[in-house]
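Batch manifest, entry 17 of 40.
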Amino acid sequence: MKHSGGSLETAIATARHRNLMVSFGILLLLAASVSLIIANARRAERLGRQQMEFVAGVSHELRTPLSVICSAGENLADGVIGDEAQVMRYGRLVRDEGRRLSRMVEQILELAGIQSGRRYDLREVQLAPLLEEAAKDCHSQLDEHRIQVASHFPPDLPAVRADAAALRQAIQNLLANAIKYSGDGSTVTLSAETVSAERGREVRIAVADQGPGIPAADLPHIFEPFYRGRQALDSQIHGNGLGLSLVKGVMESHGGSVTVESTPGGGSTFLLHLPAPEENAGRNNGGRS
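Output type: structure tokens
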């Protein structure tokens, strides 16, 4: 007599093979589960570390203007400063540090909004007037450092879908950065053009300065929040390291990007890349209007 499934040895070998496959499948599933747990734990640890670094960076940057304001206020309140010229100097100091503190708080709130997935109100925006407004808003800084802005962009730049306030703030951040790192009496160039790129047509806005340039070691990190290069720290240039990270967040939220071209001693050029509208869509919109 013979078993319909074959010999006993064959049946045992088949069962053993099936059990081994099931066991290996369970082991692979357990290994995948452990890997996911480890990956999630590391991600949580990384996020926790970033939050601590964020809080530490905010605390450090807020401490400086607050200390200056408190110190100046105490001297004024205690009557230590009696000369009218000194009182005015202290008043200007409190005013300037208060404005610096206000801008810093606004930048921190903006960064928090970007990191939490803030949605911008994207509408059709005419670029030429927006660029002119951004340059005018930096007038006080330009006069203080005797710096000129040379604007080069055609008046018929295509409209782009953007949040006008956010885009103008991003351009102002780049202009303020260029003014801060350029020498007195130099020129900052603001230009824009429509070019063909790998992903199609784009509007490219450039802000170029005549500063010392960015060291190669700092280039990969300049868009990180609170990052400041060794050169800026050694030169004691005021800043909190938030401006460029905000520019990056705004551009990514608009479907664009920001890049930088810089050589030590040769200045820096920051480029904003925004998707340009399709030519056919532009003609159709023009026909309807």
